[in-house]
Amino acid sequence: MTFPTPTNLVPAQAAALSTASEVPEVASFNVKAGLAQMLKGGVIMDVINVEQALIAEKAGACAVMALERVPADIRKNGGVARMSDPRMIREIINAVSIPVMAKVRIGHIVEAQIIESLGVDYIDESEVLTPADESNHINKHDYKVPFVCGCKNLGEALRRINEGAAMIRTKGEAGTGNVVEAVRHCRTVKAEIRKAQLMDDSELFTYAKEIQAPYHLLKETAKLGRLP
C-alpha cells in the first residue's frame, strides 16, 4: 500500500517517506535470517510472566520465550497445549527491551497470524505444543516475523528452511532437563553436513532424495559447511 507524499516536506524527507512506503509487506528471507543472527551464542529463557521476563533480561538473556506453562508442566499435565494468552505476551513485550519469542502449534496458521499481530520478534513453530497439522508445517514465507523451528537431522532442518524458517534449533526432549537428546540431534546434523561435503553433485542429488531435502539447499549446505 502506498500513500501520497505531503507537499510541504523537504526533498530528503519526501525521499525517505517514499522509500518507506515501498517496503514490502513480507520481509525477505535474508532480512529474517539477519535478525536471527542476533540470538547466536545467547541464552533464551522461558518465562511465564512479566516478573520472570524482567529477571531474565537483567541476568543477560538475549531473548525470552513467553509461555503460559514451561515445557515440564506441559508434559506433566498432558492434554492439548496451545499458544499462550495474547494478553500475557503483550505485557511481556511492553515490559522488556530484549527480543520476545512465542510458540505456535505446528501447522496452525491462525495462531501464527495472531502472534505476529502482537508484535513479537520471533515465532517458534514448536513440537512442544500439540500439533495442529501432523503433515504440513506453516508456510513461513508468508510472514514478516522470522520463524524458529526444531530438527533432529539435516533433512528435517533443510525442509524447515525451505518452508521459510530463519533459524534452526535441535529438538531434544523438552521439559525433561535431559540434554542428551539435544546433543545427539546436534551431532547428527553436523555429521550429515560433513558427509555431504565429501559428495560430488550426482551423489548429492541422490542423498537429497534419501533425506527428503531440497537439492539446492543441500548443495549450498555442502558448499558452506553449515546450514544456509
Index terms:
228 residues, alpha/beta, TIM Barrel, 6-stranded parallel β-sheet, 10 helices, 6 strands, disordered N terminus
Question: Outline of this structure?
Answer:
By secondary structure, this protein is α/β, with parallel strands linked by helices. The chain has a domain at 25-145: Aldolase class I (TIM Barrel, Alpha-Beta Barrel), CATH 3.20.20.70. The chain has helices at residues 11-21, 29-36, 50-59, 71-77, 86-95, 109-118, 154-162, 180-197, 201-210, 215-224; strands spanning 44-47, 63-66, 100-105, 122-126, 147-151, 167-170.
Give an overview of the whole structure:
It is a single chain. The protein has 228 residues and is α/β, with parallel strands linked by helices. The chain has a domain at 25-145: Aldolase class I (TIM Barrel, Alpha-Beta Barrel), CATH 3.20.20.70. Helices cover 45% and strands 12% of the residues. It contains 10 helices and 6 strands; from the N terminus they run ααβαβααβαββαβααα. It has helices at residues 11-21, 29-36, 50-59, 71-77, 86-95, 109-118, 154-162, 180-197, 201-210, 215-224, and strands at 44-47, 63-66, 100-105, 122-126, 147-151, 167-170. It has a 6-stranded parallel beta sheet with strand order 1-2-3-4-5-6. Strand 5, helix 7 and strand 6 (167-170) form a beta-alpha-beta unit. Helix 8 crosses helix 10. It is globular and about 55 Å long. The relative contact order is 0.10. Belongs to the PdxS/SNZ family. Pfam families: SOR_SNZ (PF01680). It comes from Mortierella alpina. It catalyses: aldehydo-D-ribose 5-phosphate + D-glyceraldehyde 3-phosphate + L-glutamine = pyridoxal 5'-phosphate + L-glutamate + phosphate + 3 H2O + H(+). InterPro entries: Aldolase_TIM, PdxS/SNZ, PdxS/SNZ_N, RibuloseP-bd_barrel.
